[in-house]
Design brief:
single chain; 249 residues; mainly beta; Immunoglobulin-like; 2 domains; five-stranded mixed β-sheet; 2 helices; 43% strand
Length: 249
Amino acid sequence: MRLALVFLAVCALAACSNSPSTPAPPEPSAAVDSASVGTVTGRVVLDGKVPPAETIRLDGDPKCAAMVPGGLRAAESVVTGQGNGLQNVFIYVKDGLPPRLYPVPATPVVLDQQQCRYVPRVLGIQVGQQLTIRNSDALLHNVRSEGAINETFDVGTPIQGMEVPRTFATREVMVPFKCNVHAWMNAYVGVLEHPYFAVSDEAGRFSIGQLPPGSYTLEIWHERFGTQTQQVTVAAQATADLTFSYEAS
């Protein structure tokens, strides 16, 4: 009997020693040393002939049609500027950051319903940061999120100046937004646990600052052309410059 008890005790100790340990939770971020941070800048371009933009007829809603000349608007799924710079590309640090908790900004990010379109079309936000959805039009809109990970919501905004606050619980790139009233209205929100992201401007340019020195994977996302990644090394008080290129099709 004693031998059996000793055997069972040894087995129990062995099982405990082989069981996986619970990973430690991320530590709060230490203050970033401004003397050591670097920056990633770059540009996203479209190679080849830029496809002509489709024309959207807004006469399905006379109030929308009255807001733009001729009741027509160019589709915004592909918007280019000088030198075929591609606008509305979401750029973010995908890998390489330490597993830390990053402070959540107190300032909300605004997604506006303006002249029967979402403004901006592409934006980024941190987990837990407030997204303020605003209706600047004197007509009924509807906001429908279609995230695959975050909880979806569907809310009407019938009053001009109305604001609806929402937050996201976890990382997701990207969360599509639509309008049940106006089918041409689309927006996309990149949700991250950190602040290292940007959206390309009308020239296709972007900048991500305050990065600690290190090696990172940057990913870009575009609603039509998909994703790409590049590796980049950021040195203290230095700027690394990248160019991303999509093939026009």
